[in-house]
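Subject: two folds for Thursday's group meeting

Dear M.,

Sorry for the delay on this. The cluster queue was jammed most of the week, so I only got both jobs back this morning. I'm pasting them in the order they finished. Each block is the input sequence followed by the predicted structure tokens. Could you check whether the formatting survives your parser before we put anything on slides? The first protein is the one we discussed after the seminar.
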Amino acid sequence: MSRYLHLISLLEARTLLRESFRLTYHERSAEVTQAYGYISAYPVFSRLTVPCCPVSLMDGYALRSSDTHEAGESHPVLISSFSPVHTGQQVPGGFDAVIMQEDVRIADNTHIGVLKPVRPGQHIQKTGSEMQAGRMILPAGHLITPQDIGYLLSYGIVSVPVKVIVAGLVPTGDELVEPSATPGPGEVIASNCQMMAAYFRNLGIEPIIYPNTPDDPERIRVVLDQAAGECDFIIVSGGSSTGKRDHTHAIVEEMGRIIFHGVAIRPGKTVLAGLIGEKPVFGVPGVPAGTVTALRELVTPWLAENGLTVQADQQVQVILAESIPSDPGTDDFVPLIVGRLGGRYTGISSRGSGSFVSGIRSNGILHIPRKNEGFEAGKTREVRLVPFRSHPDGMLIFSGIYDPVLGYLDQFLRAKGLSLCYLQTSQEKALYTVFKGNLHGGIIRRPCIGGHLILHPPSSFIPENACLLAIASAEYLLVSREGGDGQDLTRYRYPSLPSDSAVRIMLDAYFTTHTIDTASLQYHQDISGPEERIVAGIRNREIDAGPCSSFLARASGLLGPVIGEQSIDLVIKKEYLETEEIALLMSVIMSGEWREYIRGIPGYSAPVSGEVTVLSKETP
């Protein structure tokens, strides 16, 4: 029976798999050549910025949001300036939003009718929003897991006779390129099947990864025919949805039969299952999050019911640090970061933090049942722990600004039995987090002006009964393509930084020292930060110069004069200082060993590392 994106429940899908699929075994000689199971000896840094350009998150049309303000169902707005785009395709210049094709009516060859207004940036993934080149992916001493391999490859990192189950993994998509390549616009590195291969090796299953196969029905058919003859079951990565380039359903139905297509789970609802002869075939989304959910919630339970030894997940009771909404009718599986705060576990969703945080750092999965609309902040829920991730007992969760030194601090702490997870937010939100007491604390920067560290934002954001713990000091440069001192700074175009931002305060102080009138300078209003965006703007010649850390300048090959330094600080409630995990954190940061370690990181120093400042309304 064909179920073409007819969403069935997770329970019904598991029942159909149990009743319809039979797992076979083969004895072969297996050779281990993958990284899974090894421990990283040195930190691993991203080679790529992902995505490399603004890309569409939907199939639809790129347009100017300002042209759609008056649009409505009863009075569509006709526009002539637009460009059709597919999911993952580069958004052409001049357009600031993407509208889904369902919200558009084709008027003629040169016009479309827009049925609803869109906001700037809607359905567009910004350049580098997932990953920045030079950012730490894994620290030293990390046990590499199946998911890690997928993410490492995504960011450009290349490097016994047994009774086994053979899994055939078929990567499909015109957009796929090899890991050694640098993806161009609309291209992605083929990492999903590599990730699945590592996942199955951990279960004692031998994977066969077939060559990247374009979205061509005939070529996909040939690969599936070969896999059906060589493997015990098959998983097709990509093409499981209903777009014009999604062929998995039609091909499996032609070669065999479909068991179901569409399961009410999030992520991964487009998963399908079928048979080619007697060989089970799964179709999974081409993105890691949806694939992992399909493996964990459908494929692995089916394997366990067929006699494969699968380790049961550990579960803990967690107090939610924030409300987590969900759509009723869908079994929602939300990635969480879970840590111990005093005598309880606290957890926060990493779903909106990009695949780097949700994929690499998350150590828990919260299941929101299909009849539930989500859970409110403060509720205690049962959470499954993710194997091979840091246990909540040693996980410290902070939110606030991002700085590369945090990755080194996490690496240093792991040798002491702790792990640091940091969620990137504004400094204001970081201080609010401290005020609420939901996490271990916040992360802020303080610029050094006239020999004094200045706290921003203003005092109204300062939580009571909190203190600052200085981690390290970061040197900042005014970088440009020319680099060095002696340049005419008045002829440059600069990023338009918020007047109360720490970097802007430090830059204005530098200009004042050099008797430069900031009102006479040229500013690019569309470039206001973060530092990675400033560096990209200089490289793309959108601006001529801008401030960034010495660490980032070195990684980007840029030079410039020193304009000052900032202290990277943890903000912690005083009542938490006596907890076991925070006391250990403070002892580490206050140690001479940490100060010595900091001095070995280019661009950082330790003049105030370990110093504690009690916050008050009078804190400068």
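Second protein, same layout:
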Amino acid sequence: MSKSKEASLTKNMLEDSIMNKLVNLLDKSGLSSERMTRQQLQQMAELMSNLNAHREVPCFIVASRRLGRSSFARLYAGLYHQAAQTRWLDATDPQFLTSSARNGLLACGRRHRPASAEGRGLLVIDDLALLDESLAERFSNNLDELIEQGWQVVVITTPQNDCYQRLQSDRFVISGQDLLCIRDFSEEQRGGSLAAFLSDSLPVELRIFALLTILASRLSVEQAAAAGVVVHEDVPANLAALHPFFTRSDTGGELLVQAPSPVLLKTQIIAVLEEYVRQESLPGQSLPASDGTCSTELSTDAVRRRALEIVTRVSILLLERAEHHRSSEVLAFAESHLLKPTSADSDNVPARSADTHEPTQAATIEPAAQKGAAFRCASTDTVPMLHIRLFGGLEVYRGEQFVEHTALRSSRARQLLIHLAFAYGRGIAQDTLVERYWPERAGNRGYENLYVLWSRLGRILSSTTGRECPYLLREAGVLKLNERLVSVDTALFEEKAREVLFGDGEGQQRIALAQELEAIYGCGIILDKFSDRHIRASAERLRSLYVDVLMEAARLSEFAGNQVTALWMARKAYETDTSKEEVYRTLMDAQIKAGRRTSAMQTFFACKAFLSEELGILPSQLTMNLYQDLLMDSG
């Protein structure tokens, strides 16, 4: 056999070996390789091979969030590096920058390289924030030092936080476009990525143009101006550079995006619109107030009316393009989520024009206003509140009456109610539910089954004999619970948890609130035989949030000097979840502060054993610092 054929055969065998290992890693990580085409698998393997070939320079994954950046890095680590030689630093941890400012960036990567490691290790800095010029330069120098010591360094960041083009001219970069080529994104995944992008700290003119492009699917600067939004001409090019879902048209005149349903981005759409309208009304750019005067202090109603006007103009643009379905979807979204009628509005709803059979724009909105008024009347006068409890097991109360219905014990009705409860305030698209329940049903059969199930659940929840259940709403293809008439304990839990984690109140108030959550909701979500993977995922998300609340309460208690409460909260967090290094570290810190040195030492070794056996990694620098404090105290 010739040398060229032998070399070609060896190369093919090596590629097949890498492909097989990559498929196994994908399946183990939950990213099923069966959903990927052969071409996508080959592109992923080639991209990782290129990353491995550039170990001598800093490597950057520069892409927007929710595009699988961290998953790609973990797969690469499993493919080319041993677990014991891999370090993973969470750059979103506030202590990361605090420690780096004091000790130098990446000190943990330099000081705790395994003694048995020969050759190279891998250091991943995940989700690096935007650094100022001096700190970014120091960070860049640290990268060079680590590479000289034999480390491969991978930095994950967003395009807007990437300030290293000048500092690292020879670096290797994986972009968002590269990640798009190796996987297909569902509508929900696109919605999640775009929601994170709209929530980012970008200039409002970038986010408002991105939002209108999402609503219209394609948009030019001139079309945005026709909708009442004026931006600079370079905005489309900037957006195309920041997020790979946005692309320029062949002529360059329009920005394109494969748009998800507006309902998936409800919170972000409302927030960006309100921010834009309020910034638009700064001095010199005042908007008409409700009384016809101009004011820079806009009321909420005035902001909503202006936002509704902008989105309505987008729906008209879609109508002019003959995109009737999308136009109706955008208008229905605007009426459902931007129209907030007051009692005065409902008394002065414009009627149809007397000179034409076509309704005016205001008359088109009339049914939504009447519907809202009807629900306000029902919620206060005739219809009792519906209370849904998920903590401790599913229980439903209509007012003070326990809803005990044999049909609620059936798998599908029970599942649907739990799904709606977890989606409280957002709702679930009909398409999503059909795909979850009846993926094998072709055509309209799945939707027919969903309507039957929806009607059955309405009869279970409602005490009336009418056809409509006041507790359930269907708006623009989205099924949801009526927030005016339904309360859900998990939604209240999340609201109070946000107050603990992000509230501006005093520490003692937040500690007391955390104690209340611990006492009331400590039992967690009790799953039954009807729980599917989506319900289990939602329950796990709440459990993780509960643990975060406990750790924050422990931190607040330590700061207040109450070491007993701090130790109690840290122990409860440890009892709830032993799969997070932060939980071990929180408990160690509380034990050290309370003088429980032996217990703290035991916690450290339990943490080290878990990380080694389950994840194949060593404790982080923050955990090692606590251990070093223990050793120094012992000396």
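Two things I noticed about the second structure. The CA atoms of residues 202 and 284 lie 23 Å apart. Residues 533-559 form the longest helix (27 residues).

Cheers,
T.
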